[in-house]
Design brief:
By secondary structure, the protein is of the alpha/beta class. It has nine helices and five strands; from the N terminus they run E-H-E-H-H-E-H-E-H-H-H-E-H-H. Strands 2-3-1-4-5 form a five-stranded parallel β-sheet, with helices on both faces.
Length: 221
Amino acid sequence: MSTPSFALLGAGFGRTGTLSLKSALESLGYDPCHHMMEVMQNPGSEKSWKQAGDAKARGDAYDWASLVDGYRALVDWPGCHFWRELSQVFPDAPVLLSVRDPQKWYESAFETIYQVIQRAREAEDPAVRERMQMADSLIFQGTFEGRFEDRAFATGVFEAHNEEVQRTIPADRLLVYRVGDGWEPLCKFLGTPVPEHAFPHVNSRDEFRAMIKGVTGRADA
């Protein structure tokens, strides 16, 4: 079933400020906004993302709209893996491409997401392992072809993704955004008033490690 209220698609990879964006967008009325943390906090939800990933890899049809049923917006993985499909299913939804310096992005992703998923097989909870396996399948095996440790290859994939989004989505539908830009360009793009409170900045590497400890039971992510 489609989601008539779905109104904003985030196409940027994880570790481009997506959790800060989730918080910002929800404060602007795009609530709830899907993010990988939604998967982590809702056991069983990883199954539909895994099925969608398998369908995409095979080139099969899938009810892509069902992935965002109940959500007003989406940022981060696993959703950004399906940016092309979702942008076609929701042709009126503006697209937000969050970006950052490729080298800084790689260092951040390597030290956080990649390390957590590498350790996922050691998690005691089988549900945690299943969620992490889905993430590994879509991100590090699917997007990065199992070569994420090759820094040049991984940053090349990152840059190629950003370029492909910009080639595909019309300029009047797309905002290329860095979280350091703050409220003004985001609110102008969305046609919303600029909030009086400061733009949220959350999920630093230290915050990520503390947060993921509650998910995996490990502090050394």
